[in-house]
Amino acid sequence: AQRVTQPEKLLSVFKGAPVELKCNYSYSGSPELFWYVQYSRQRLQLLLRHISRESIKGFTADLNKGETSFHLKKPFAQEEDSAMYYCALSGLNFGNEKLTFGTGTRLTIIP
Amino acid sequence: GAGVSQTPSNKVTEKGKYVELRCDPISGHTALYWYRQSLGQGPEFLIYFQGTGAADDSGLPNDRFFAVRPEGSVSTLKIQRTERGDSAVYLCASSLTSDSFSGTDTQYFGPGTRLTVL
Description:
Chain A is an all-beta fold. In chain A, 0% of the residues lie in helices and 44% in strands. Chain B has a domain at 30-96: Immunoglobulin-like, CATH 2.60.40.
């Protein structure tokens, strides 16, 4: 069975401070990992995916297969980063496209 | 262009009633997904269509839930004999193609339908 764990439901960080949102997963094959974000009164949208290995809005995430983690990081938090963040997993098995989401972390940036 | 749209945005019904939730995917997207998000939880997969056919319906909780996509575009999620536990936000997403050899394609989500069963 595949599972995504986000241990922190709530996280508050001061503006300008570093941010790290934790995500751990369990999956028997080779997963693809994502971070989705939902800003206030907006729909869920993709923030980044591990395959792209890119930085979006200053956020990065590295897949650590040994620790089965995909933590989201940003060196300097900005007020506009306040949102709900979901880590998600998809198998790379043929035909399996569904996403398995964690329970989410609500990030609040304190001015 | 227009994103994924869902109607209605809110639906209040009584226990035991039948409801239909509609999803209009992004034009040209062949894959369509339904998820359910209960309060305090992440989205939970229900069913996935590739074209007109259900490629994976393993997430449907029981036989009261059914979804169709007759022409490969619009999809309807149907819930019979609704129960209070069905109350949730139902999310629809679509993606351009379903080619696992190039990894999972980006899913674009709709705004959701908030279903409340009294």
